[in-house]
Every structure is written in structure tokens, then in C-alpha cells.
Amino acid sequence: MKYSIVILCGLLVFSSYINGQKSNDTNPSKPNIVMIMADDLGGRDLPAYGNNFNESPNIDQLRKQGMLFNNAYAAPVCSPTRASIQSGQYPARVGIFDFIPGHWRPFEEVIVPHHEVQHLPDEIITIGDMMQEAGYKTGYFGKWHLGNNPNHLPDARGYDKAHVYAGGGYYHPKFLPAYKSNNNKRLSELLSDMGIDFIKEYKEEPFFLFVSHYDVHVQLDADSILIDKYLKKKKDPDYASNAVYAAMIEHVDKSVGDIMKALEEYGLTDNTIVIFCSDNGGVDNRFDNIPLLGGNSKNVYPEDHPLRYVATSNTPLRAGKGTLYEGGIRVPLIVRWPGNIVPGSTSEALVSSVDYYPTFLEIAKGKKPENQILDGLTMVPALTQNEFDPEREIFTHYPVYHHEQPMSALRKGDWKIVENLVTGEFYLYNLKHDINEMTDLKFSFPEKLTVMKMALQDWEARTNAQKPIPNPNFDVNKRYEWSKNPYRK
Can you give 201-228 as a three-state secondary structure string? Predict the structure, then answer.
């Protein structure tokens, strides 16, 4: 009897071990995913990308531990990029191609298209929905800009926990749904707190956390001690060196550091992918030429000082936010994935904001939505093996007046074509030799122009990319007047 009990116990232990092994084989621990997005942070604003004025030690550390992308793209303004991340589709296909509710110049040469709906379309299965179905707890905190009605907010679009920034500035923020907070805390700190609370609550389960900062969006406002630090710092002659803007970058950097500390505290750093990115290029100046400073920082520079009107410089990239030139659509992207990414590595892969959805889909072993086209490609080969298609096509479409005329664009390899949607003209650039996009090569390479023109027009047709139409009320004397979008609700 004694030996029978011993044998039985042994069999039970062995059986438990085998079952455990089977469970681990079929359901390996899924990595957590933390995505931290800055707003309007340019492709050349970080020391990791060569900036000599701004400071971001925590993002620098992230870069040392992860992979930096030199050719990451997004839409030229906020809502389209956010729509592309949530849907895995190009903004043209989603139907959100401008910020919500949209820019409007009623007397311009053409009438720009408008959004059919002022929110992420209801039929979209969001990246949050997909991650939930894959067994993840999901959280979204910060700027949403895809609809403010209750049924359009992230907690109704695939996120278990969410608080969306709803105005009030950087020092008196409001949220939907309401969030009880310490009034002495800045917006960036509150978003970090929300993210850390989410990590603490779901540390025992796979989670997907999206922290979407409002920094470094205008109106620029930051901690006065940090501003003083940068006012006293030696300026970079090749960069704007705006002290308020630099301080705001440091606020975002602190958020990155605080979230990384929380992951370390709960023993999650080795099984968590951390992504840092921006939603579009940097703001070199406002399209309406009003001062960029606000709140307690509005008088940091005197009235005649140029830095009241200039936030940053995307040089050597051309132009900035609100354009389809490289300064408007090329963004910083750093990814940390322990055990899968070579620390301190750099990738030249062409990637886009539409790629996050299929990337997370693969990592989370999720289910692809049946009736939802995914325009993006998984970044996993680029991340884990630095393998990518050097001739990949990246499309952008911005059919509205903002910092430039309405345009559409395609990058393929080193070549880029830009279509002016007002004049119908095309421009051809070789980014390898002309990163500034100053030399139009269409007459030197007519065959290349023809091939890329056909590819762009085919994509426009496939995605139903909306284009402007002639304006019967065109007035050359009033064309630059801005007005409230008539479709704004």
C-alpha cells in the first residue's frame, strides 16, 4: 500500500508536469506591448536622431536598448495617423484624411473634400478590439482625436480602461470620462500615472498600453525651471533651440522614464515591448502665424522674438507638419524588445503607421478581421532580423490646404513622387541624393516618373482617396482666409 501511494503520487506529479509542459507549449507567455506617442514631435528633435540642443536621457536609454528607425512615416497631422494605427488602413481608405473636424478655406481655388463622419467609422475593428480578442487587457490614455461622443471614445472601441484628454491645457487638464487627479500635476505626469496604474492592475496578464501624449503640441507651455535651464543653454546654430519646446520634450522623456521604472518594479521589462513614436512631423511655425506660446509660458520670449513663432526645425528634411514633404511625415520611431532586437541597432526599413496593426496581430497571435483590409505590413522581420523590402511603397494623402496646397505622395525605395492636387503637377525626388527635396527630376527620369505616377494613381483609386474639386466661389483676394469647417459639429 505504501509503495502504491508513492507510485500514485509520482504519476500525479509527472502528469502535472506533462500537462504544464503542454500548456506552456501551446500558450507561451505573450509579451506586453507599451506604446508611447508624442504629439508633433519632429523627426530631428531627439538626441537619438542627432539633436544637439534638446535632452531626453530616458529615450536615449531606450535607443541604446532597442532599434531606431530612420525611415518611419505617418500622416502629416494627428487624426489620420491615429485612425491608421487603430485600423491598420491608410487614412484615405478610412475616410479620415485631415484632423477632425478639418481645415477650411472657403475662397480657395478648390473645395477640399470633407470627412463623411467626424469619428473613427463604427465598422472598424480597432487594434484595441483585436488585442482584446487575443487575450490582452487594453488601456488608452491621452489624446484620442477620433470622436468625443461616448460611443466613439476608446472605452467603447476596444479598450478596457481609458481616459481621453478633453482640453484645459497642460496644467488644468480635463478628461473623458472624468479623472480625479492632483491639480498640481501636469498633463504628461497624469498620463504617466494612468499608465502606471494600468500596469500595476494588469501586471499578471498580457496587456496593451497606449499612452498618447499631447506634448509637444502648441500652445507651448512647460515647467518654468526646465525652461530656465534651456534659456541658459548654448543654442545650436542649425536648430531653432526653443527653450519651451525643449522643456516639453523633457516632460515626455520623464514619462518614458517613469513608465520604464514601473515595468522594472513589477519585473516586466524582459517581457514587454516598448515603442516610442510621434504622430507627424514637427511644427516649424503655425499656418495662421499666431504666437506658439501659451499658458504660463506665453511671455518667455518678447513680442518681437522669432521663437514666439517657431517651435522647431526639421532640417535637413523639408517643411513640417501639415505637408507631405519629409519634414511633415517622417517621424521618430524607437522599439525595445528584449531578446528579439539587437540593442543599439538601426534600421533603414521603410515603415508606416499602418504597420502597427499587423505587427501587433502577429506578436499577439491575434485574429485578422474578416472584412477589414489591412494596408500595413508586419514589422517583425525588420525588428528581429533587420530584414525588409528596400523597394516597399509608402503612400500619403493630404487633400486639404494647411501649410501647403493639397497633395498626394508615394515613396518607393529612394524615390518619391509628389502630386499637387490643385495644379495636377507631379514632382520627382531622389531622397538618397536630395533629402531636402529641392531638385525636381521628372524631366531627367521620365520613365521613373511614369511608373511612380501610375502606382500612385492606382493606389488612389483602390483606396477611394478623395480629391478637391474646382471652387465656383474662388476669390483671389480672399483665398487665404480661414473659416470654421461647415461640417464641424
Answer: HCCCCCEEEEEECCCCCCCECCCHHHHH
Task: Tell me: pLDDT of 7 over 60.
Answer: no
**Integer Cα distance of 188 and 279 in angstroms:** 16
Residue 162 and residue 152: Cα distance in Å, rounded?
A: 12
In a domain, 300, yes or no: yes
Which whole number is the average pLDDT over 235-253? Answer: 98
Alpha-carbon gap, residue 102 to 110, rounded angstroms: 15
**Could you identify the residue written with the cell 463623411?**
116
Which grid coordinates are listed for 440? Answer: 525636381
Q: How far apart are CA 213 and CA 211, in angstroms?
A: 6
Q: Say how far apart CA 348 and CA 333 lie, in whole Å.
A: 11
410 pLDDT more than 50: yes
Flag whether 7 is in a domain.
no
Residue 419: inside a domain: no
Beta strands 67-73 and 330-331 are: antiparallel
Domain contains 219: yes
What are 69-92's pLDDT values in tens digits? 999 999 999 999 999 999 999 999
pTM score: 0.93
Residue 30 DSSP symbol: P
Count of domains forming the chain: 1
Q: Is the pLDDT of residue 20 over 70?
A: no
Q: Single out the residue of 440, 447, 392 nearest to residue 420, CA to CA.
A: 440
Q: What is the pLDDT of residues 129-164, one digit of tens each?
A: 999 999 999 999 999 999 999 999 999 999 999 999
Q: What domain range is 313 assigned to?
A: 30-394
Q: pLDDT (tens digit, 9 = 90+) per residue, 309-319?
A: 999 999 999 99
Closest CA to 239 of 404, 44, 402, 22: 44
Identify the CATH number of the domain in which residue 312 sits. Answer: 3.40.720.10
Q: Classify residue 107 as exposed, middle or buried by CB count within 10 Å of its CB (0-12, 13-18, 19+).
A: middle
Residue 342: in which H helix or E strand, if any? none
